[in-house]
Write a structure and sequence with these properties.
By secondary structure, this protein is an alpha/beta fold. It is 41% helix and 22% strand. A hairpin with a 4-residue loop joins strand 3 and strand 4. Helix 3 runs antiparallel to helix 5 and helix 4 packs across helix 5. The protein starts with a helix and ends with a strand. The protein binds nicotinamide-adenine-dinucleotide. Nicotinamide-adenine-dinucleotide (NAD) binds next to helix 8 and helix 9.
Length: 476
Amino acid sequence: MSLQHADIAADLTLTIDGEGAKGSSTLDVINPATGRLFATCPAAGRDDLDRAVDAGRRAFPAWRDLSYDGRADRIRRFCQSLREHQESLAYLLTMEQGKPLQQAKDEITRAASQSEGMTKIPIVPQVLEDNDQRRIELQWFPLGVAGIITPWNAPINLAAGPLTSALYTGNTVILKPSPYTPLCTLKLGELARALFPRGVVNVLAGGDDLGRWMTEHPGIDKIGFTGSVESGKAVMAAAAKTLKRVTLELGGNDAAIVLDDVDAKAIAPKLFFASFVNSGQVCMAIKRIYAHERIYSDLCDALAEEARKAKVGSGLDADTQLGPIQNRAQYDRVVGILDDTKRSGARILAGGEVPKGDGYFIEPTIVADVDEHSRLVREEQFGPIVPVLKFTDEDDAIRRANDTRYGLSGSVWSSNPERAAKLASRLEVGTAWVNQHRATSATVPFGGAKESGIGRVYSEMGLKAYLEPRVVSILK
Ligand code: NAD
């Protein structure tokens, strides 16, 4: 299949009140594998946002009054539509985001199945007290219009979770993707038009300004935000003016702690994949590996071997495992961290090169003997360069893993899962895995401790973040 620039640009519109809209300006979309413009799409101005909010407010009462089953049915049909359009959506995702085509397809499958899973979670009132004198019930009601703001690393999956949470619980939605990856999300809006009542799903492309206008808008009741810590703080400050509810899914600096009893060769492919998938541009990617001194050198060698084997290239090439960095600014940041790491005297075991030529490519890089205070260890690198740090004492490993403002997730690896689980329970994170990393599901809450966020997505907990509790207390 080949979609030409003109086809893609001609196709796309914003979705406002169930109809296509042209917006008030345009966004240029770069293919990160070439560094060149490949599509232009409409972008929303303030008037478009006002119209979308009005449409969302008008649609809200009827959508709220539909049953959970009625809303679940629409969402499941939407998931089916995602699957039917998987090929063309995956192509578009690879073109704008860069990830290998198969991983783009997987992202769509995951978005559909996790959304379906969420629509099977019952939300029922709870009786808190029922006796001769009184009956007290805890009920849940939707908030109104939810603004959903997403980043560029997994635009379909990261839209699907909050979109489903908001819709299933009876809210209407304004969805805004990152300006770097607007195209797939605009397509989602087009698919939604055929399946949801007018005004229930509105999709607006735009830059950071549009995000700011959303967080300040008095007609929006909730912000479901996924992005960086810095932007998350700005969202929370802006939302305070109207006391909007917020769910903030922010950055991470996940540690994997590898104990002395592992088979280094056997676990290296798993650690490598959890660190480097999507070229490290995953909030819950492993970003620091702490390895016990007994297996340190074996693990370094095995990880370096994995890195040398990995095929880097355009996501459209069938054998590519790692695509480019998604955008120029992030590429420059990661190159800066790589330069800083080289200057610090750390040992580069594999990679370390920035290929010349088109596209934002960086070789997968494994670094040993790195300074704990270096940028690579302290910051969220969000790219294909991972440090391996040595420890001798498990208490010290936990202390160093927790010595960060981030708290998204982490993992402990051992041939003895019980032993690992004890240590995992000491990680200051939203999710602590044992012998795995980056496993999420529709029924399990996911989100960050510390500055990695507020609230959870998925699960009953995530759904209730789009609902307000109401106590009904009856004196008999
Ligand atoms: P970003 O914060 O720059 O942008 C994210 C979105 O917020 C974009 O749509 C952007 O236009 C918008 N935005 C920016 N400033 C805003 C503001 N002041 N008000 C409202 N909206 C604003 O993040 P990014 O660079 O697109 O994404 C990468 C970051 O996202 C990484 O830190 C990554 O870890 C994080 N992330 C977190 C999760 C999670 O579930 N915790 C998942 C994926 C990515």
